Amino acid sequence: MNIFWGELIGTMLLVLLGNGVVANVLLTKSKGHNSGWIVISAGWGFAVGIALYATAWASGGHINPAVTLGFCIAGKTAWNLFPLYATSQMIGAILGAILVWLCYFPHWRATYDSTHKLLCFATHPAIRNYKWNFVTEVIGTAVLLVGVLGIFDAHNLVSGGMGPYAVGILVFSIGLSLGGPTGYAINPARDLGPRIVHAFLPISSRGSSEWSYSWVPVLGPLLGGVLGTLLYEFLIAPLKALNLPQ
Length: 246
Description:
Glycerol uptake facilitator protein
């Protein structure tokens, strides 16, 4: 139950604060309207840090099926727990998206751009090219897993109380550097859960939920999580055996 509630609440906080900053920047008449990409990237980084500080002690703070998959491959999480993690993360993402909708309720009708409304829930590529959008999500999530595994490696002496802060900086960095092409989902639950909410909520002039694109921010991060984990476990972690001078 610690895993279920920890991941549900953690992912809910992640999506509430992460998609909340997108809504603040994109929705008409919001106080943060047009404040830009740096605000969005920073908001997502802070969202990850806060979610981890609040709930990582209970469940490990994966809040992302791609991270859970990577941890299973690395032997840090039992494979039989993957469905529990993924299910609680999806439920949390759906609840977080509903809370964003409620927080900005008057702004949906005031906003006429349907794409901006979608972006408050799910990702949308700057240039639609499924192959290269997929590659971007794979690379971004691979960097995420390399960074997370490095931050929490005992040899790095960075984990503990500073771990969530460091992961937040990592996500902020990915957003600033790699987020432009696709909006950097790097998390299947963060994209798919809110996309489902977008499809069913009574949002004025909602527009398309773009299901034809939805596989990219799901399969891309899952593959990226696998590749990032393998890169760290088989190429980076073995360097510890060299006993390099401190």
